[in-house]
Amino acid sequence: MANIRDLAKEAGVSVATVSRVLNGYPYVSEEKRKAVWEAVEKLNYTKNIQAVHLAKGKTRIVGVMLPYIHHPYFSAVIEGISKEALRCGYQLLLFQTNYEVKRELEALERLRMKQMDGLIVCSHEADWEVFAVYREDGPIVLCERAVGHDFFTVYIDHYQAFAQALRYLLDKGHRRIGYCIGRTTGPNSQARAAAYRDVLGSVGVIPQPQWIFDGCLFLEDGKRVIERWMDMKERPSALLVTSDQVAAGIVLHAQRVGVHIPEELAVIGFDNDPLAEMLGMTTVALPHFALGEKAFRLLHHWLETGNVPRTQEELPARLIVRMTG
Amino acid sequence: MANIRDLAKEAGVSVATVSRVLNGYPYVSEEKRKAVWEAVEKLNYTKNIQAVHLAKGKTRIVGVMLPYIHHPYFSAVIEGISKEALRCGYQLLLFQTNYEVKRELEALERLRMKQMDGLIVCSHEADWEVFAVYREDGPIVLCERAVGHDFFTVYIDHYQAFAQALRYLLDKGHRRIGYCIGRTTGPNSQARAAAYRDVLGSVGVIPQPQWIFDGCLFLEDGKRVIERWMDMKERPSALLVTSDQVAAGIVLHAQRVGVHIPEELAVIGFDNDPLAEMLGMTTVALPHFALGEKAFRLLHHWLETGNVPRTQEELPARLIVRMTG
DNA sequence: TTGTAGGCGTTATCAA
DNA sequence: TTGATAACGCCTACAA
């Protein structure tokens, strides 16, 4: 495969001139410019991007760290990132971690190795301290709140989102309120747990541990929740469900087994997935797509200007009352 | 940032020795090995992966071309690809195209530029001739059938899948059978259209153009379908819906507006999404995840052995009868 | 077991 | 306007 030196020889110019032509720099005579393009044509030349990356020390590639892709939340976030990246001429390198710390470290190491210009962390498992170590190796933007660390982040205010829904339920008279969550670790989950404690505590309700349903990620988990709920002696009268997928699973399975929603069990989902509208589900709308977009923009600005963005932007959530809660 | 030469100086050895140590080659004395690692530690060295890529002419990166990510079909395929890639130590570079030919060409150009070792095409818009031009620039594996081109592919046999469902409906006595599809171009869509013509033709049914509902990609499109269906004078009695998401939208909206399923309208979805099971939907299970896995494996084998895989593997689909059709 | 030196393909500086 | 040449950082014959 022809390289820039072959071109130079063919066109009868220097490699420097070839490079200038290829990159559209001024100060090249029309004549030589033409000769170079002809050589490009003749030798069927294409630039080797690796060499460019090495020489420039930049790649216009951004890494995206996330546990898995086949999930409505993460695929919405990526879509937002991807849309902006496309617009700005950046490429996306995927780092699927399955929430394994080892994988997260691999991604961070790749940042050190300068495989990409920056990294967007959608969700993580390792301690923030681990991430802090890599801060000097390249720009990192988070999609989660990092309390006590001055990372640059765009995040959804899950405390406020949860609190909002809880107060709504309290106002409707509910006292036995439980919730379903994907996993208990992670900043988002902890923000919710804090809101749960605080808001229920403010009205003197003592939540029961068994009112918290862990491992709720996918539609089919909703079935499990209903089954467990039916087996309980003191059932919650309302559930906050941190994913509309799971909430939909709950609502649909409840319907099937004859549990009346919201009379016997009020259900409030999160996300405002199309499914929520379709099922008439009360839900808290979360701006996932915008989260991805903004995270990329933040990183992009950082990369292009070199100015560290001292940003920690909070994206608001909005309760949408429909029929299930 | 320290480089391999700094290490050599620090450790009092040559760069070749450093490289050997770093890459775990034999024939290095324990003493020097130790000295190198100490230098690594001391200088806080990390290898620059770009330089490695350039020197080796390989990247262990695979490109994935797909129209969008936030879609159950594509995110399942990627998940399959990603899982295998992770296992084999490969990374994924995303090329979101929005079905724009221009974007597809950009991805192919990147293959030429040797940004990645190979490319998996999940779905495309450009003519196969365009892809054929780039075949010599790197291994390309397709997730769609390419009739008349000897690309290497793994694909779901959509003709068989569609035909299977159609015959089932015919057996049940349906004659006015329509279908909903994402877009009409693309090999998968054309395979379905062919099955539709052939199977209906075989029993002398002349399908009406308005029985084909285009642009059905997401849950919310199902609502539109029902609305249009209700406005029709000669309504289909059954619909094949090429996405369970859309089928779910149809079933749920039908329920809402009082259309009885399957009595007034039989619905058969595709994918076997968890939603289908939850809603008791009859559906044709499609192995999306396996498709991604196998596509990666095919490419991987090609990359590692250098042997062109003359594979064109057809993945079967399976009708799952539940309650909607 | 070790080192030297050339190569990978571009970009960028500096002098002309 | 142009060209030589030194980076960029690593790998790898080949020679010792």
UniProtKB/TrEMBL annotation, chains A, B:
Q: Which key words are in the record?
A: DNA-binding, Transcription, Transcription regulation
HTH lacI-type domain segment(s): 2-56
GO molecular-function annotation terms?
DNA-binding transcription factor activity; transcription cis-regulatory region binding
Q: Which Pfam families match?
A: LacI, Peripla_BP_1
Which InterPro entries does the record associate with it? HTH_LacI, Lambda_DNA-bd_dom_sf, Peripla_BP/Lac1_sug-bd_dom, Peripla_BP_I
PANTHER family per UniProt: CATABOLITE CONTROL PROTEIN B, LACI-RELATED TRANSCRIPTIONAL REPRESSOR
UniProt protein name: LacI family transcriptional regulator
The species this protein was found in:
Geobacillus subterraneus
